[in-house]
Amino acid sequence: MSILLNRMRYMLTPQFDIYEQVADIVTGRTADVGCGLGYGTQLFARLADSVVGYDIENDFLEFASRSFTYPNLCFEFGDILNRSHAGIKGDFDTVVMIDVIEHVEYDQDAIKSAASITSTSGTFICSTPNRLSRYRKSDNHVREYAPDEFEKLMLTGFENVRICSYGLERIGLKTENPLIAICDQPLKGNT
After folding, report:
1. pLDDT, tens digit, 9 for 90 and up, residues 68-123
2. Cβ pair 81, 113 in contact under 8 A
3. What is the DSSP string of 12-79?
4. Does 177 reside within a domain?
5. Using CA atoms, how far apart are residues 103 and 142, in angstroms rounded to an integer?
6. Residue 122 carries which DSSP code?
7. CA 175, CA 147: separation in Å to the nearest integer?
8. 180 domain-assigned
9. For residue 184, with 0-12 CB atoms within 10 Å meaning exposed, 13-18 middle and 19 or more buried, which class applies?
10. How many domains are there within the chain?
11. What is d(CA 168, CA 53) in angstroms, rounded to the nearest whole number?
12. CATH no. for residue 27?
């Protein structure tokens, strides 16, 4: 891949490297919550049976829908916090939120909602910058998490939580960035 293409990819979707790692473990019916422009979401279509990319920005969804036209991929308006008509409904085998939770004011509600759409045998994957690291900071974040805080948040919606590093292995150093939670056994009826 050319240097220019790598630079453009990172400018348009700085989380693309995380999506590449996660794309190898998604299965079944998959939801990408906060899909943005869909660059990462389209990677899931390789292994997943079907993929729905959700976002609250209509311009992003329009771009993604025109750019990525795979038969098992679609993009829809959906708000993880809205339990009415714009809420995300379903029973997904894999639910993914890549660098979204740090932008959400009601983080516990978002995790409980993610648990409600994750099938009982499904997996929830959530990433966020590590506040103990010096990389990927943003003034647009509502909050950032240290590894123990991130794990505690995930436990509000899931019984089994593993905090991983970029390579999807258990986190070693408390400053590793990003933090990736791989969660299963959703706590249903918890919303």
Report:
1. 999 999 999 999 998 666 778 889 999 999 999 998 999 999 999 999 999 999 99
2. yes
3. H-TTHHHHHHHTTT--SEEEEET-TTSTTHHHHTTTSSEEEEEES-HHHHHHHHHH---TTEEEEE-B
4. yes
5. 5
6. E
7. 8
8. yes
9. middle
10. 1
11. 22
12. 3.40.50.150
